Amino acid sequence: MTIPLYHTDSYMKEFTAVVTEVMGNAIVLDRTAFYPGGGGQPNDTGHLRLGDAEYPVVKVSRKDGKLLHEVGRTPPSVGAQVAGVIDWDRRYLLMRTHTALHILCGVVWRDYGAQVTGGDMQPLLARMDFELENMSATFAKEMEEKVNNEVAAARTVAVSNLPRDVAMQTPDLIRTKINLLPAGILEVRVVDIQGLDLQADGGTHVANTREVGRIKVVGHESKGRINKRLRIQIE
């Protein structure tokens, strides 16, 4: 089992680990700071070092309960101790973007009680779909003002873990229309934008909403009778 260092420290840029398994050009580590992707957030990239050799990490993913680090060359052997380095510039942009989506989600839930029906992100660009009947340019403009008020409020973003039975008793913790929480998870990771938004989430986030920067709502679309989309860009 790989220890997910990114769950406890989103700001970790470098780490050391031991190779526990090799599968083709992918390796499993005993611990990792590379986020494997999920919830709309792409996987991290970067590289591993072993002595003078460098192994580009081109993809990180989950398979059969394992975290696979796909490298761009013949991988190191089982038992090797490697140093991992995250592409921090890209990771931090994704952290800002992910937190921006939680701010948007929190505002829409607080003011309209609308659940999330989908979402996706790239560095500084993202979209989120909501169970809403109406969407307009006026609504989009109001959302932009409201989410930037929350950025300016400099709210703390705290992460904790709750036993599954306790988490499931927390009102509105699962904000998506479909509960995507795997049945086998015994502890639920919770991201709390204090005073605004509390929900289950496995991704990486900044520590304070002010780090997000200005959020622009750059598009709005109707994706169905009760499915509306907002597109955002982070400055």
Structure description:
The protein has 235 residues and is α+β, with helices and mostly antiparallel strands. It has 2 domains: 3-86, Elongation Factor Tu (Ef-tu), domain 3; 91-234, Threonyl-trna Synthetase, Chain A, domain 2 (Threonyl-tRNA Synthetase, Chain A, domain 2, 2-Layer Sandwich). Helices cover 19% and strands 39% of the residues. It is built from 3 helices and 15 strands. The protein has helices spanning 88-112, 137-152, 164-167, and strands at 3-4, 14-23, 26-29, 31-32, 46-50, 53-63, 66-71, 81-86, 116-122, 125-130, 157-163, 187-193, 197-200, 215-222, 228-234. Strands 2-3-7-6-5-8 form a 6-stranded antiparallel β-barrel. Helix 1 packs across helix 2. The radius of gyration is 19 Å and the shape is elongated. The mean pLDDT is 92.
The multimeric state of the shown protein is single chain
- The succession of helices and strands, N to C, reads EEEEEEEEHEEHEHEEEE
How many domain regions? Answer: 2
What is Rg?
19 Å
Instruction: State the end-to-end CA separation.
Output: 38 Å
Mean model confidence by pLDDT: 92
* CATH-assigned fold name of the largest domain: Threonyl-tRNA Synthetase, Chain A, domain 2
